Amino acid sequence: MDILVDLETLNFESGIPEEERFWLYLHSRSRGLIIEACAHAIFLCKLLRQLSINLAKYELASVEPSDSVSSELSLRVGIIGGGRLGKQLACSLLKLVPIPAENLRISTRRPDVLDVIQKEGIQCFYHNPHLASWANILFLCCLPSQLPNICLEIQGSIERNCLVQSFASAIPLPRLRLLLNNHTNILRPVYHCVEDTDHIWGANKDIATALQDPVILQATSPFSSKGGITLNIKWLEGVLYAALNVCTSRSLFYPKALEMLNRLFFITEDSACPSFQLEHFVNQIYVRNLFHRRPFPWFDLTTVQLKETPFSQHLSNSPDLQDYLHYIYCEVFDVSLTKQKPKGTTDSPSHQGTSRS
Description:
By secondary structure, this protein is of the alpha/beta class.
């Protein structure tokens, strides 16, 4: 028995004068932001991992026995920054996606302090350009003051298909794009906080455990404002366009890419929302001029997140789609929302795809 468990004098709040306790919400907010950042990175990696699996199966079924299937479909995740967020993110990705340790690497100025993570089999070193050239998903978990120098280091090493997600909130997307030498495959989640934060984030759970709590998980949904933190929905829109870019990089014709996207989100004829269509992602002029046997264009994700798109209009005009995507978001984490299950949704879609292969 641990006699120190729940000992009040060991709590974070212990010893703080009563007149200063007002500021405790900042501690909860800080934890909430880290949980949200990890949750959205996990969601992104789970989707793209499953998309990679689906694409590999499709290619295997499509090629002749003598042909070979590209091995470039495997998810290779790099993290630049080994601070609090970088460490928590690595552990969460390892446990909840799950990403094999050999497919997860960290570049940090102090790899020697990450001995616990290295014991899990994750490579930790200090060589940002090497990591950027290896990864096909790259998370920037550094301070805004460090970002310009890091971008200068890696801008010549990032492949066009590499998806970069930055958590440096002080660097806007147009600036980030310029820093990365006009790289367009960039996501940047934008979080908005309110002062009156709900105390739902929990103080003693690690991130992976916290995200198995239905209350905490639902608070991280792009459609939720619980916990006093909201995510700009344009990030989720960018995720869908990023999935289409993956299909374009594999030269999939747009009807097959749409089929892959619908399958990724478990949308069938019996689903609660209609399937994604071509006009949901490109304008009507493009729809009329796009040949059936052509891929989608390559989408500039920075523009997608900054401007109104066909999908923005489709999502805002469809409450059923919003409810459905919220439900699927939670199902991806294997946390079932039975009581809120949208009409027509299949049972346990996570068993079919994103979290299990």
